[in-house]
Design goal:
309 residues, 2 domains, four-stranded parallel sheet, 13 helices, 9 strands
């Protein structure tokens, strides 16, 4: 049966923990430059409507480290839904390659690719979710904590795609989470309803900083929102993670950011570059968790029936 990953909801807790454990193993092997050949003869296509540093490099590197190949299709190469229908693109790619990795503006495009492709589809970011980022984020925390249910994650900023995926992951993994956004920028109601047993949404960033162990933020103005920049910068005043706000934080807090960061807006340089920051670990772990995810979706590794949650 075809497996896709377009939402955190495509994975249950058992599967996520299995992927974390496998990632830890492969990470050790590949740190020693012992390349694997599990993807020999396999090709993944990167279908991008949005430019990227981390997403492109980590996926292309993951495919090559496993013995596979990658094809990058830039925004001007395909023009999904304009030059050619998403349905036809999905059906054609399914005849040529083994995996579609899509980075697009619209969640509807992601869902349509999943519907018509006969090969696995990975959501590498759309306007509703960023599941690969959240998976890497929770792996980064898991490396430190192991017992995820003991920590509390705080998100301060826009209730955007990254926030959505983190909230879904909190519910699935049983992690307590708090989200602080300005009024009018709260996460989607469907996401709030799904995760309400584990996630509290507020408009007070101070409340999040006081109670959470991991403090996460993201840009206030994402790609495609440039026309809203002036209004957003005004509305998000008071939501910057800076030294003043962190005076309220727990002693051992950690700073998280999916990058790229708009330094001086949602976060200050001294915080982003501090000893408490684990943002580069998050960025590195995109590579490691995505490598394992590819193997899982292509049925090259399977979950033992005896594995525990």
């Amino acid at each position: 049966m075809k497996k896709d990953f377009i939402s955190l909801k495509d994975l249950d807790k058992k599967t996520i923990i299995f992927l974390f454990k496998k990632t830890k193993t492969y990470k050790k092997i590949l740190k020693k430059k012992k390349w694997l050949t599990l993807l020999k003869g396999k090709i993944g296509v990167l279908l991008f409507e949005k430019p990227s540093l981390r997403t492109r490099v980590t996926f292309e590197t993951a495919l090559k480290q496993l013995g596979g190949e990658s094809i990058y299709l830039a925004p001007t190469d395909v023009q999904m839904g304009k030059r050619e229908s998403v349905k036809d693109i999905a059906k054609n790619l399914s005849r040529w390659v083994d995996l579609i990795i899509v980075r697009t503006f619209s969640h509807n495009i992601t869902k349509e690719l999943k519907e018509y492709a006969t090969i696995p589809v990975i959501n590498a970011l759309d306007d509703y979710e960023h599941p690969c980022q959240a998976l890497a984020d929770y792996y980064t925390i898991w490396e430190r904590e192991k017992n995820l249910e003991k920590i509390k994650l705080g998100f301060i900023g826009d209730g955007n795609n990254v926030c959505h995926s983190l909230m879904l992951g909190a519910k699935i993994l049983g992690i307590k989470m708090m989200v602080a956004t300005p009024k009018g920028y709260e996460p989607d109601k469907e996401i709030i309803d799904f995760s309400k047993d584990f996630v509290k949404v507020t408009n007070e960033p101070e409340e999040v900083v006081k109670t959470c162990d991991y403090l996460y933020t993201d840009v206030w103005v994402s790609m495609g929102q440039e026309s809203e920049r002036e209004r957003r910068l005004k509305d998000f005043q008071g939501f910057q993670i800076n030294k003043e706000l962190l005076k309220l934080a727990k002693k051992e807090y950690k700073i998280m950011h999916c990058l790229p960061a708009h330094r001086g807006e949602e976060i200050t340089d001294d915080v982003l570059d501090s000893e408490n920051s684990i943002v580069l670990d998050q960025a590195e772990n995109r590579l490691h968790i995505q490598r394992t995810l590819i193997l899982y979706l292509l049925n090259l590794i399977k979950i033992p029936s005896t594995i525990k949650k």
